[in-house]
Amino acid sequence: MKKAALITGASRGIGRAIAGVLAESLPVVINYRNDESAALAVQAEIREKGGEALVIRADVADYEQVRRMFDEIRAADYWVHTLVNNAGIIRDQFAIMMGLDAWHAVINCNLNGAFYCVRESVQTMMARRAGNIINISSISGLHGQVGQSNYAASKAALTGLTKSLAKELGRFNVRVNCVAPGFIETDMGAELLSNEKMAKLLELARQELLPLRRWGKPADIAGVVQFLVSSQAAYMTGQVLEVDGGLSL
Ligand SMILES: NC(=O)c1ccc[n+]([C@@H]2O[C@H](COP(=O)([O-])OP(=O)(O)OC[C@H]3O[C@@H](n4cnc5c(N)ncnc54)[C@H](OP(=O)(O)O)[C@@H]3O)[C@@H](O)[C@H]2O)c1
């Protein structure tokens, strides 16, 4: 079996950029939920550059679909050496007005989805004494954000998951780290900007508070993930790296 990297939610945005950089050094599995043509475009781009990529549709919020995804990975003769839990959604609303559906949808995808993938991959990593897990959190999970109690809770939980797993798995040479992006220009970023009040606040923050004075790009996150899974970061585990242009300083 060949080792591979599984990136959840890799058909667009940050996940797509992560798949692109990780494919430079190992085969990648591009997971997506809805947009097959976007996922196939990522695969084509990687293959054009000489990389190996497999595309698998699975809703990470559904454990049975995650199990089937791992069956497909094994059937293709790969084992997941590097897991990037990137798939994530927002359903913003003030907590007082938030419906249970918005709460559960966000927790199921962002938190439970990450755990389901960990559960399916970690035994093989332990047996092979090698592995890397990266959880994509958010600065909302570290500092909170108005209208994002569900999202911030799911992302804060990922940092707890990261630190606990790092303590459990270090002796098996499996490292677990977390990346907490600030505002990154993706479809999710655009969704945030569609709220007029939030757009005004973000623009003010960019001009007045953001030390680097520009929003992040998916490549800014992908580069940090590439570093964390590389041997350059061999002595790092259980860490949360804020990649936000200095916004949370
Ligand atoms: N953009 C930001 O400003 C920002 C800031 C901090 C943290 N983050 C985090 O970074 C990660 C990526 O965000 P992004 O901005 O790149 O998002 P995005 O542009 O909205 O892309 C989300 C990706 O996740 C996939 N996805 C969503 N739900 C899924 C599910 N249940 N199962 C499998 N795949 C699913 C989507 O696939 P389909 O299109 O096929 O549904 C898509 O590939 C998320 O965890 C997000 O919370 C983003």
Structure commentary:
The chain is α/β, with parallel strands linked by helices and about 250 residues long. The protein has one domain: Rossmann fold. Helix content is about 50%, strand content about 15%. It contains 9 helices and 7 strands. The chain has helices spanning about 15-20, 35-50, 65-75, 100-130, 140-145, 150-170, 185-195, 195-210, 220-230; strands at about 1-5, 30, 55, 80-85, 130-135, 175-180, 240-245. α4 links the parallel β4 (about 80-85) and β5 (about 130-135). α1 (about 15-20) crosses α9, α3 (about 65-75) runs parallel beside α4 and α4 (about 100-130) packs parallel to α6. The radius of gyration is 17 Å and the shape is globular. Bound molecules: NADP nicotinamide-adenine-dinucleotide phosphate.
Care to give the gist of this entry?
With 249 residues, this protein is of the alpha/beta class.
CATH homologous superfamily classification? NAD(P)-binding Rossmann-like Domain
Question: What is the third-level CATH name, the topology?
Answer: Rossmann fold
Number of domains: 1
Strand content: 15-25%
What is bound: which ligands? NADP nicotinamide-adenine-dinucleotide phosphate
| SS content category | alpha/beta
Q: Secondary-structure element sequence?
A: EHEHEHEHEHHEHHHE
Mean pLDDT: 97
- Largest beta sheet: strand ordering: 3-2-1-4-5-6-7
Work out the helix count.
9
CATH architecture: 3-Layer(aba) Sandwich
The CATH class designation is Alpha Beta
Question: Which outline best applies?
Answer: globular
**Major beta-sheet overview:** 7 strands, parallel
**E-strand count:** 7
